[in-house]
Write a structure and sequence with these properties.
Blueprint lengths: L1 H28 L3 H20 L34 E5 L7 H16 L2 E5 L6 H13 L4 E5 L6 H9 L4 E4 L10 E4 L2 H16 L4 E6 L4 H17 L3 E7 L4 H14 L5 E4 L4 H11 L7 E5 L3 H8 L5 E4 L2 H17 L8 H4 L7 E3 L3 E3 L10
Parallel strand pairs: 1-2, 1-3, 3-4, 4-5, 5-11, 6-7, 6-8, 8-9, 9-10
Antiparallel strand pairs: 10-12
Helix pairs in contact: 3-11, 6-7, 8-9
């Protein structure tokens, strides 16, 4: 039965082919030579196109009609934003320390990529009043924006004054969330402390004693301390025997570490939460003949810290990314002035600033295994 059906189909196909050939012959017999040529050309074209072209896809369904909306249509491109006169000011205290080499790299990168100008201001020592004066001078120049390292709460009124004067402010490295700053860019300092706690447990086996050197007046350091101590307490048998205020001063940090070495001769580790504390602890241990015998966790990537890691005097350092912080701070400030993105039909009336309020730029862990990569 199946064979018979197959033959029937073959016969039917052959009959159709013969009929087609007879029909073409008939047409050709009815026309003159010119008409024959045209018909033949047309038939050959049809055959060639049929052989070379894939079957057409079925027609697409009609597009759905968009529902009416009150949102404004995307604005048509206008003249390019002129950034040639835009200047962004970065303000800080302790402006001469190596930490700010990376900050200046970020400023230079923003100048190159965006075509803006930048200015780095602030005293070389920890003099907040001098920083406030520098910011007042900058405000008189009406910069396009200000980037500020949020050292302490006394800077909040200055930030608010800048914003109220129409100068947007972004904080980096250390935040002042009670101020009117528009965004914070930097590491999550609590998680930074947690990361140091994990490393402390790893290198001590979770047993022994440790001491902390820090400056409790600094908000970012306070958050690191909380993350560190809470994690260590919950996940190890390590005991915190002392915490000393280094006042962000290298000599004070060295003296505090020396006193702790004498008081706790069996101390297992130092955790240094400020930039000066790590070098201070390393110097005190070297002077006491205990370099490498008491573990040290530090912060930052200045040459002194890197050399101490290389020599085995500091076990590891945790360093943020100030070049990224500064670069993206200017990117966000530029987006406020020159960007076209919007959240609502009228963001200003809605009290919305169309930039993220927080950008986490992370922390790098530096050990003997990768210290060479961080040398400038």
């Amino acid at each position: 039965m199946v064979t018979w059906v197959g033959r029937k189909e073959v016969n039917r196909t052959r009959n159709e082919s013969i009929q087609a050939q007879l029909w073409i012959t008939y047409l050709l017999s009815m026309e003159d030579h010119l008409m024959k040529s045209r018909i033949l050309s047309l038939l050959m074209l049809v055959l060639v196109v049929s052989a070379c072209t894939a079957p057409a896809a079925p027609p697409a369904a009609p597009a759905a009609t968009a529902a009416p909306t009150n949102a404004p249509a995307a604005a048509a491109p206008t003249s390019k934003c002129d950034r040639s006169k835009d200047q962004y000011v970065y303000g800080t205290v302790l402006s001469s320390i190596d930490f700010f080499l990376d900050t200046k790299n970020g400023l230079a990168a923003a100048e190159k990529d965006l075509g803006v100008k930048t200015k780095f201001v602030g005293p070389a020592d920890y003099n907040v009043n001098a920083l406030l004066q520098a910011l007042d001078q900058a405000m008189a120049e009406k910069p396009a924006g200000v980037i500020l390292l949020g050292w302490e709460e006394s800077l909040v009124p200055e930030i608010n004054k800048l914003v109220e004067a129409g100068i947007p402010v972004v904080t980096t490295t250390a935040d002042l969330p009670t101020s009117k700053r528009l965004a914070f860019i930097g590491a999550d300092n609590y998680q930074w402390g947690v990361s140091m706690g994990k490393k402390l447990i790893e290198m001590t086996g979770g047993k022994g004693t440790y001491a902390v050197l820090r400056d409790p007046s600094l908000g970012n350091v306070k958050q690191r301390f909380e993350g560190l101590t809470e994690y260590v307490k919950a996940n190890s048998e390590l005991q915190l025997v002392a915490e000393e205020n280094d006042r962000s001063d290298i000599q004070t940090a060295t003296q505090a570490a020396s006193a702790l070495i004498q008081k706790y001769p069996d101390l297992t580790a130092f955790v240094a939460l400020t930039g000066v504390a790590g070098p201070g602890a390393a110097t005190a241990l070297r002077d006491a003949g205990k370099a490498g015998k008491i573990k040290v966790l530090a912060v930052n990537r200045d040459p002194v810290v890197l050399k101490a890691i290389e020599d085995g005097e500091i076990t590891a350092a945790f360093a943020e990314n100030p070049s990224l912080e500064t670069y993206y701070a200017i990117q966000l400030l530029d987006a406020i002035r020159c960007g076209s993105v919007f959240i609502t039909p009228d963001d200003k009336a809605a009290g919305i600033v169309p930039i993220p309020s927080y950008v986490d730029t992370g922390v790098n862990v530096i050990t003997q295994a990768n210290v060479n990569a961080f040398k400038r």
